[in-house]
Amino acid sequence: MSKKLTTTYKLVSVALLAILATNYFLYTQQAQASFALSVRNSGGNEISQSSTAFGISNAISAPSLLIVSIGIDNKSTADGNTSDVTNVIDSKGNIYTKAGEFTNTVGGVANDGATIAVWYSVLGTSLGTSDTVSASYSAAVVAKAITMESYTLGAGQGHSVFVRR
To answer: How far apart are CA 28 and CA 35, in angstroms?
Structure first.
């Protein structure tokens, strides 16, 4: 298998794991109001970076719950809860909270497995197609992928986000 195909396969696998991790770490509850997936964005690259800005391809209106799932080459050398993704921010200043992060390593060395991190924000300010969501890492990362799922929240209703640990 060529290096490029192997890397592409790894990025796709990491993106799928990120979606599964989202469902494991995070669920929401909303009393008597609509709650629906409205926008999905994704991206990735293979450039060594200590932080990455990902573009928004579809505008996301506030208030929405934005779930950001990030898959990267592992930096931690042990399986378990880690802190390889250190921060998530966007260009409009919305606040993001980490729901969870997990590393799976094959041989106990950096870059032999994957780390999945899930962050979320109830957007106070809408994001347009010229905005970005940025992730920072504990060390430079080459392979990375991101998915962003936005869920429309009903106006005037209370919303709670519960994190499973």
So the answer is: 9
pLDDT 10s digits, 109-119: 998 999 999 99
Amino acid code (one letter) for 9: Y
Q: For residue 160, tell me if it sits in a domain.
A: no
- Within a domain: residue 115? yes
Residue 112, in any domain of the structure: yes
**pTM of the complete model beyond 0.85:** no
Domain residues for the domain of 110 are: 3-154
Other beta carbons within 10 Å of 14: 24
Give the model confidence (pLDDT) of 84-131 as tens digits.
Answer: 999 999 999 999 999 999 999 989 999 899 999 999 999 999 999 999
Q: How far is CA 131 from each of CA 92, 106, 142, rounded to the nearest angstrom? A: 7, 36, 23
Contacts for 2 with CB less than 8 Å, ≥ 6 apart: none
Residue 82 lies in a domain: yes
